[in-house]
Amino acid sequence: MFIKGNFLYTPSRTELTIRENEYAHIEKGIITGFCKEVPQDNQEEVVDCGRDIIIPAFVDLHIHAPQYINRGLGFDEELLPWLEDYTFPAEKRFADPDFARRVYTAFVRRLKAEGTLCFSAFATIHKEATWQLMEIAEKEGLKAYIGKVNMDRNAPDYLLEDTDQSLADTEELILRCREEMQRVRFIATPRFVPSTTEKLMTGLGRLCEKYDLPVQSHLSENRNEVAWVRELHPDLPSYTAVYDAFGLLRPQQTIMAHAIYLSAEERRLLKSKGIYLAHCAQSNANLSSGIMPLRRNLEEGLTCSIASDVAAGHTPAMNKQIALTIEVSKLYALEHEKEKALTIGEGLYLATKGPGRFYGCTGSFEKGYAFDALVIHLEDIEGLERTPFEKLQQYIYDGDDRNIVARYVNGKRL
Ligand code: GUN
Ligand code: FE
Fold it and tell me: Any residues with CB less than 8 A from the CB of 398 and at least 6 apart, and which?
């Protein structure tokens, strides 16, 4: 297949490639290259997107599927009371698989509408509901990592698991997912250190080793949370060191959300293991958590991406998350000498190719990448023709799902 249009993508954080009026050639869902004209003897389908722009589909590495029902709620509180008062009561409802199916259908369809075609999500502790989420993501055609949450301490009774049962349920889902899913993969999901005993973390570390699993969790989001972890594990040097001690910092296979308050030693450890740090600027503002020093992290060589963290982030729309991340980076740079604001190209990279590497070859239009893409239409006004780069900026700042006129996963239109 050939698809014609104006392509924008980021081979690296500092490189924004713009191909105007070119054809991408796609074979078995994979991009083989670009050309200015189709070969004269072409027999393949040609799709013409006219003046529309085509960008890689978004990748969101940190989102809570059950919390979709709580978007925008409870932001007068900080993290720990917000969890108790809003989040845990919402997650309790996923003991009911029928309720879960309704919410997860709305959740996955919304991600699809907004152009997030690859994601990594927390479900809840509930095995049946987690399976529903996997089935729905698979059926709707998205690429996803999905994890059953593990919690066996410091939670209300209704979300507290027996440690052995938690591990048994997890293993059952790992096996079932391997058997039945194609684009959906299982990811080990200890909620965060305060929610998981040493026994549970040890068991999860072993499962990760046995099945070569990726991991996702939360790290250093809020000052009270960090102090709590220090109290719970006085013998370990840091929050990061706790995950490491239990085999939960798996090299190049681990996502840690937030990572705001890190020591030099923690930064060194996270860098050496290639841990993916999910930067959730909107969530961090909503819960008054703090601001990650993004520029400093990037320059030190830490792997960062932009993520929504719904429902602490109030919208799953990644174009809005990019805009907000850039805005926050500008305010932060005003107050911090060594910081420098994020650019549009960097913002796009941190929501496409950067996190896309976690899943595989998605998030760019280089040769060998899956054609996972969004076709974006912005109305041209007569006498005012915007360039593709201008259209990209206007879509990021003021666009929404109505501007996305086509979505592709592995070269197939959804
Ligand atoms: N830390 C532990 N659980 C959560 C959660 O659900 N959301 C956020 N933002 N932080 C957490
Ligand atoms: Fe989160």
Answer: none
Q: Where are the alpha helices (DSSP H) in 149-222?
A: 163-180, 198-211
Res. 376 pLDDT band, cuts 50 70 90: very high
Whether residue 81 contacts residue 312, with contact meaning beta carbons closer than 8 Å, is answered with: no
CATH class, domain 58-359, is: alpha beta
State how far the Cα of 336 lies from the Cα of 342, in Å rounded to an integer.
Answer: 14
How far the first Cα of the chain sits from its last, in Å, is 15
Can you give the residue ranges of every domain in the chain? 2-57+363-413, 58-359
Residue 265's contacts (CB-CB under 8 Å, 6 or more residues apart) are 237, 238
At the second CATH level, the architecture of 2-57+363-413 is: Roll (2.30)
Distance 226 CA to ligand 1 centre (A): 13
Ligand 1 residue neighbourhood (C-beta within 6 Å): 64, 79, 83, 87, 191-192, 218, 221, 283, 309, 312
**242: helix, coil or strand?**
helix
Please give the number of the atom of ligand 1 that sits closest to the Cα of 195. Answer: 2
Give 338's pLDDT tier (boundaries 50, 70, 90).
Answer: confident
Å from CA of 121 to ligand 2 middle: 9
Give the gyration radius of the chain's Cα atoms.
Answer: 21
**Amino acid letter, residue 226:** V
**Atom of ligand 1 lying closest to residue 289 CA:** 9
